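We modelled the chain as a single entity of 145 amino acids. Its sequence is:
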Amino acid sequence: MKTFDQTNKLYNHVYKNAAMGMGTTAHLLSGKRGKEMEESLKKQQAEYTAICRSAEQSLRERGAKIKGLSAIEKFRTDKAVSMNLLGNRSDSHVAQMLMTGSAMGVINAQKQLNECPEAEAGARDLMQRLSDFEQGTLEKMKSFL
């Protein structure tokens, strides 16, 4: 039972983190961006969406409840992004914001992997994919600084 619970927990964390990334990139795409930044955000959006869908599908197949972002969490994240953009909407500032979020994503992914050592390989692999993607985002955003 422990493996089943940890697997569901890990898939839900993947789902929630990828959903947050989807929301943030969508918000950032709604503003004016340089061509390269816009392309990068679209690629990020696609990867977050793919990871989110994969976690959702795995949870559905397991008959588990999907625990995404609450309405308050979505609102808070959206407002935090909006507030952060008030003083500076440059691509450099957006890159800095994305790097901060991605660093938090890498930390959260490792924390969840450590807390769910008995989760099935599929869930661990998907969380690692998300972590690797976040790490790649950190590197890609450096060129916009």
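As a brief sanity check on the tokenised model: The chain has five helices and no strands. The helical segments are 2-29, 35-61, 71-86, 91-115, 121-141.
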